[in-house]
Amino acid sequence: MSELGIEKPTRETDEEDQIAHFMQELLAGLPGGTATLGVRHDRSGTVFYLKPSNKKSAEFGIHYDGCVDVFFGSGNTFELDGNVDELLELVRPLALAVISGRCEQRFGFLGVRGKILLDGGKVYRCTDYFHPRLYPKTVRYEPYYNESGKP
């Protein structure tokens, strides 16, 4: 609190605002009705997510609790640590790849392996364990919208 009784913004609040602005920019770059932006607060931080209208597209989001955790689909998370400005520049191509449908998840017996294919052929992979599944399957996600701009 300042001398005037006004709460000073914390570094964490500023960074949450940056993430919120980033997610709003992503949404603004999409045709209307393609996705919605959601925000929820839980015990461990704030979750910002894009929920696509196309049910065969992957949700994309960022969980912020002092660190930036990027997630997509139904269970894969990339944990990132560092300066939020720099991290958001790394996250942008990941988000655009998910929005473009260049991601998939392999649900195996003990875990989920996620893959995001960036422009230029670079691939980001992550594995989350202890998500047992009796019947393994691979889900290849669709783009948020097709060339005509329809979901």
What can you tell me about this protein's structure?
This protein has 151 residues and is α+β, with helices and mostly antiparallel strands. The protein has a domain at 11-102. It contains two helices and nine strands. The strands form two sheets. The protein has a five-stranded antiparallel sheet, with helices on one face. Strands 8-7-6-9 form a four-stranded antiparallel sheet, with helices on one face. Strand 2 and strand 3 form a beta hairpin. Helix 1 packs parallel to helix 2. The longest helix is centred in the first third of the chain and has 18 residues, at 11-28. The radius of gyration is 17 Å and the shape is globular. Residues 1-9 have low confidence and may be disordered.
Extract low-pLDDT stretches: 1-9
Secondary-structure-derived class: alpha+beta
Major β-sheet, in short? 5 strands, antiparallel
The fraction of residues in strands falls at 35-45%
The average pLDDT is: 88
What gyration radius follows from the Cα positions, in whole Å?
17 Å
Pattern of helices and strands:
HEEEEEHEEEE
- The helix fraction, in percent, is 10-25%
Quaternary organisation: single chain
Principal-axis shape equals globular
Q: What is the β-strand count?
A: 9
Distance between the termini: 46 Å
The DSSP helix count reads 2
User: What's the arrangement of strands in the largest beta sheet?
Assistant: 1-2-3-4-5
